[in-house]
Amino acid sequence: MKGNSEIMKSGFIAIVGRPNVGKSTLMNKLVKEKVAIVSDKAGTTRDQIKGIVNIGENQYIFVDTPGIHKPKHLLGEHMTEIALETLSNVDLIMFMLDGTKEISTGDIFVNEHIRETKTPVIVVINKIDKMSNEEIEEKKTEIKEKLGEFADIITLTAEYAIGVHKIFEVAEKYLSSDVWFYPEDYYTDLPVNKIVVETVREKILHNTKDEIPHSVAVEITDVETKKDIRKYEVNIYVERDSQKGIIIGKDGALLKKIGIEARKEIEALIDLKVNLKLWVKVKKKWRKDKQFLNEMGYKIKKKK
């Protein structure tokens, strides 16, 4: 932890937007470590994930949130609730837009909720590598006309880290605390087991299509650590028998591939050999099952 310097500053910065605009990709580029899982499927992020960056005397705590959307089930309600709660508890909101697409009803939905807070908001236009200077200016005009005025607008491409440095320059003036919240060597506050769960889920997202990613939950049921190896027993839950068959694959081939990809990444993270046992189980309509969601750690709140 840093000492008692008078110029130390820290603050929380939320990355929000509709699903699949590049929030998790941006988080990983800001932190320069893999913090949030990334896929091209909407709804990848299900929880609030923090990425911590220390530059000089400043500590920037970025909060990646689930995409804000109109929910269709209890899990969706939980994801949107987390994102909305975050907005009032940070120093700055970064509202992320896909610059290559027209501002959608989804973007307007997010903007309406942002406007309900008193938190300063900057807009981040993503994917400028696919836009001309003229298109970028047209996008800024469209933002003003459809969404209103914002404290600032930043243009960047998260995938290639183009322009990402501008976020630190703009965010610095919003850092409100004179203490650091995390030790100097932290880049996330996620526990290792949570990262293991998210890594397995990411490999499933990368290796499956259509409805499978949204219907998957992952849970560690047992961990055993010996001198040079750690064993994980992991349950993968799906909602239908047909989905179970897809994830297992012919002769277990896809499940084996998922396990190998996840194991390699986990081994690099914990610097130990990993034995990863994956089991696929059917839990019908689990996304609407309050008790199951709470058991999985989603902490679904009671309706008022």
TrEMBL record:
Region annotation G3: where it falls in the sequence = 64-67
Binding residues for GTP? 17-24, 64-68, 126-129
Q: Which domain of life is it from?
A: Bacteria
Map out region (G1) in residue numbers: 17-24
Q: Where is this region: G2?
A: 43-47
Check the record and name the Pfam families matching this protein.
KH_2, MMR_HSR1
Q: Where is this region: G5?
A: 156-158
**Era-type G domain location:** 9-177
- Name the keywords, alphabetized: Cell membrane, Cytoplasm, GTP-binding, Membrane, Nucleotide-binding, Ribosome biogenesis, RNA-binding, rRNA-binding
| InterPro entries in the cross-refs | G_ERA_dom, GTP-bd, GTPase_Era-like, KH_dom-like_a/b, KH_dom_type_2, KH_sf_prok-type, P-loop_NTPase, Small_GTP-bd
GO CC terms on record?
cytosol; plasma membrane
Q: Where in the cell is it found?
A: Cytoplasm; Cell membrane
Q: Where is this region: G4?
A: 126-129
Q: How does it sit in the membrane?
A: Peripheral membrane protein
Q: Which GO terms are recorded in the biological process aspect for this UniProt protein? A: ribosomal small subunit assembly
Domain KH type-2 positions: 208-284
Named from the GO MF annotations, one term is: ribosomal small subunit binding
Assembly, per entry: Monomer.
Q: Which family does it belong to?
A: Belongs to the TRAFAC class TrmE-Era-EngA-EngB-Septin-like GTPase superfamily. Era GTPase family.
The job of this chain, per UniProt, is described as: An essential GTPase that binds both GDP and GTP, with rapid nucleotide exchange. Plays a role in 16S rRNA processing and 30S ribosomal subunit biogenesis and possibly also in cell cycle regulation and energy metabolism.
Q: Know the name of this protein?
A: GTPase Era
Gene source species: Pseudoleptotrichia goodfellowii F0264
- The gene coding this protein: era
